[in-house]
Every structure is written in C-alpha cells, then in structure tokens.
Amino acid sequence: MKKFFDRGAKYLSLVKFSHTIFAMPFALIGLFLAIEPGSGAFTWRLLVLILCAMVFARNSAMGFNRWADRKIDARNPRTAKREIPSALLSPSAVLVFVIVNVVLFVIVAALINRLALYLSVPAMIILLGYSYLKRFTSLCHYGLGLALSCAPAAAYISVTGRLDYAPLILSLIVFLWSSSFDILYSLADEEFDRSEGLHSIPGLLGRKRAMVVSALGHALVIPLLWIFGYSAGLGIVYIIGAAIFAALLVYQHLIIKPNDISRLNAAFFTANGVASVIFAVFTIADILF
What is the model's pLDDT at position 273? Predict the structure, then answer.
C-alpha cells in the first residue's frame, strides 16, 4: 500500500497538482454563472463531472508537457530534478498516464453533453499542443493562456450547451492573466532558452521589455473585469473581489525587478493562486446571493 501511495505522490508532483488552483476557480465561476437562481440546473452530478474533467484535462496537459520536455528538462539545472530526468518516473509510464487521462477526459465530456463531447477533441489539441510552441514561437506563453482560458467557457457550456458573452469575457480575462504571469515565470529560464534555441518573450526581448509586455497584458485585464461584471449583472461583492484581484496583479509586478527576480515564486504561485481563489469566492458569492 505504501508503494502505491508513493507512486501516486510522484504523479501528483509530476503534474504540479497544487497548481490546479489557477484554473479551477474560474471553471467554478463559469459553472455558477450558467445557473439561473431557482432554475434547478445545478446538480451534484454535474459539479463532479466538471471537476473530474478539469483534473483529467490538467493531468493530460501537464503530464504531456513533462514527457515532451524530458530531454530539455534534463539539461536545465532548474528542472533537472523533475520526475522524468531524475528517473523517479519513466517516460513510458508518464505517456501511459497521459493517454489514460485523455481517454477519461473525453468520456467525462460525453457524459456532460453532446457539445462538450464535440469540443473535447479541439480542447485536448490545445492542451497538448502548447507544450511544443516554445520550439517554434516566442508567443508560446499565449498558448498556455489559451489552454487555461478554456476552463470557464467549458464549465458554462457544460450547463447551458452554448457559449454567451459574459463567459467569453471571463475566458479572455483568464487568457491575458495567465499568459502574462507565464511571461514573468519564464524570466528564470531566459539564458537557458537562448542557449537551447528555445523561444520565449524574455529570450526575444530581454528581461526588462518582457516585464513590460507582461504588465501590459495584466493592465488589459482591469477594464475587462469591469466589462465582465457589467455583462454578468454583478454587484458590490463582485467589485470588491475584482479590486483585490487587480491589486494582486499590481503587487506581483512590484516585487519583481529586472535585476532581482528572487521573489519570482511568490509572484507566480502565491499572488496568482490567492488572486484566483479570492476572485472566485467573491464572484460566486455575488452570483448566489
């Protein structure tokens, strides 16, 4: 039994399960946004299916990313201790893990509704395909943003079977928010990316200009927060949550300097993780009450 749990812990570490906190709160917003009060559209079965779809989709994407980048990770001192380079998990075992999660994701999508099933294939292409983008384009960060931005729209579609204006704006917020913080996170690999011929905004523009691009992306989020709140008919509780979310976006840019990225992890995980949870709690509370 201990061996089973040890192996499970390795897979959780492989996919950085704790990072689910980035997209999951927005998926829950999409779910509750789709539910009209008193309509009876919400069911626990649907909630469980959406949560499972999110987990299987993220496991597929992160597992495939680690498999696709296994040789690159082995050459990068920052990532050399990841599960495949350090031989904690074999490449073939990780690939099987990915295939199982892809199949489970499609099955769950089929159980949700027909449109979710039809969209599961292009969604999976986006989720898996972004892993290869840094080999070809410095816009790879926006591939990750596109992958994460599927979460709220997918949850909304799961309930309604259609996509409307408000969840589309929310997906755009997630797109700009996540792609911009990924640019910041990639600052740590600026020199390595150049030496390996990999593409990124920091590798293309340098650290200072990359931080400007990231800041501009986050600046665009702020008016979109207002547009989303207006289009969804949200009130003061949402406004408070959106204000805190915006403040945390500003905060992460204040604690990182071109000549000092020592607080990069605090900006990437702590600020963004807290921001997504707070935003979801206040938004869902406004929707429900």
Answer: 84
Within 8 A by CB and 6+ apart from 68, the residues are: 131, 132
pLDDT, tens digit (0-9, with 9 covering 90-100), for 71-80: 999 999 888 8
The pTM of this model reads 0.91
Say yes or no to pLDDT of 283 above 60: yes
**270 DSSP assignment:** I
CATH of segment(s) 42-135 = 1.10.357.140
Which residue has 């980048």 as its token pair? 69
The first and second tokens of residue 196, run together, are 């390996």
**Any idea what the Cα angle at residue 263 is, between residues 258 and 265, rounded to 5°?**
115
Question: Which residues in the chain are classed under CATH 1.10.357.140?
Answer: 42-135
Phi-psi region of 279 (alpha: psi -120 to 50; beta: other; left: phi over 0): alpha
- List, in sequence order, every residue forming a beta bridge with 257; answer none if it has no partner: 260
Q: What is the separation of C-alpha 91 from the centre of its chain, rounded to a whole number of angstroms?
A: 24
